Amino acid sequence: MSGGVLYVSYSGMLEPLGQSQVLAYQENLAADHPVHLVSFERPEDWARINEREVVAQRMRTAGIHWHPLRYHKRFSFLATAWDILCGSVKGLCIVRKHRLTIVHARSYVSSVMALMIKRATGAKYVFDMRGFWADERVDGGLWSPSGRMYRVAKWFERRFLLSADHVISLTQAGVDEMRKFPYLREGMPPVTVIPTCADLARFKPLALDKGTQFVLGYVGSAGTWYLFDVVAACFQQLLTIRPDATLLIINREEHGYIVARLAAAGVPEAAFEIRSVDHADVPREMARMHAGVFFIKPVFSKQASAPTKLGEFLGCGIPCLSNRGVGDMASLLEGEQVGVALAEFDTASLLVGVESLLKLVALPEISARCVQSAHRHFSLDEGVARYQAVYESLE
């Protein structure tokens, strides 16, 4: 058993993201590595006492020592600075009291705390970067590339990468981009690629009769990073080949926007269905789909992104049509022959993509191939094994 791990997450464990992408891993790692987990919980989440107790019981059962702190939002910059101070002091006390040897920080804000703790205690520091956060702010139109906030964030990113004893990246494409950073050209810290995991115990093929009508599926958000207009144009091309096809959309809050974009693309109302379902019911809805489709803006920051929905589609045995320029998605889809990745979005390219997707769907072995790919790349067990190897390398 190791000297122990302090895991710092600026996301709360009462949020779905914290439970699926932090707690799910640490529950499996705590048996071999004593884990103390510092998280920042939103007041509205903390007020849900029953849900809080369920999460706390999960922690106790796994042997995780949970140290929840309050997340502050008002006066954004000052609130974050206060949270960093509180998290750094709390983490420093935990590391010294329990003689922990590793500080594992999820993303950038947590890494500011981890870096201070490392310098004060000598603990090994794992930078779990989760993507190019500062560049995402620029690509999303929130920051200017010449603005002070971006420059400060990139300065911290440089400190994190140069100080890290190990770096976790969601994609190999992200690692390849980091190797081009001038200050890393002479050498990078050890890096392990661990994509976001999908719950493959839930997202799996279900024994439902899909029928003869072709169903193209879309799941999740249609805005921000997603190119839903391209999805609409793509489905319009599908209708020229399969006039009976249906577009099944699982989305909770953007129905008006989706209907407007489909109408603008000339998609008939009778050709699509929009459903809002609880997350627990999504796998059953996906079981109706023959193929999945989604397109993500191919901007620089997305080189370091690994969309969870890809793992969920594949886990359900569903091949996908998507695009290049986003993490390792293209190499996975086409390298393992579980989907199609487009480089262009013009009409001719969309038509070729749809035709290629239909050929894949027709293969009798495609469902099994998709499931096998999901388990190779997105399974929780594989992610846990890679984290385990990282911790052992730092002992």
UniProtKB/TrEMBL annotation:
Give the Pfam families listed for this entry. Glyco_trans_4_4 (PF13579)
By what name is this protein known?
Glycosyltransferase
Instruction: Enumerate the spans annotated as Glycosyltransferase subfamily 4-like N-terminal domain.
Output: 22-182
Q: Which organism is it from?
A: Pseudoxanthomonas gei
| Stretches assigned to coiled coil | none
